[in-house]
Amino acid sequence: MTTVYTDTSALLKRVVLEPESAAVRALLRSREADGDLLVSSSLAWLEVWRVLRRAGLANIEAVAELALSGVAEFPLDEVVLVRARRVASRTEIVGLHSSRRAIAVGAGFRC
What we know:
Number of domains: 2
Distance between the termini: 17 Å
Order of helices and strands: EHHEHHEHH
Strand order of the largest sheet: 1-2-3
Radius of gyration: 14 Å
Structural class: mainly alpha
Strand content: 5-15%
Shape: globular
Number of strands: 3
């Protein structure tokens, strides 16, 4: 079994139609069928809810549940956040993308 870190954009593609949505859905279904564990950080869970709320959807809870279904939530504890800060300070990528990547790397996932 492999652990697959799933970022916010991949989670949202499970419920939002975009050019890459079908390919991402197929990949995630394939990984789940292979017995791999899909995980995402608590930050990604928060971001999914925020994006869906901003989209003005009528039934946010149901859509969020679909986006996050079968994905284990990886909590952001102090150890992960300290590691993420160190990774973020060594990268030239800026903004939220660097924070998400830093959290994944800080949690021990390969990106």
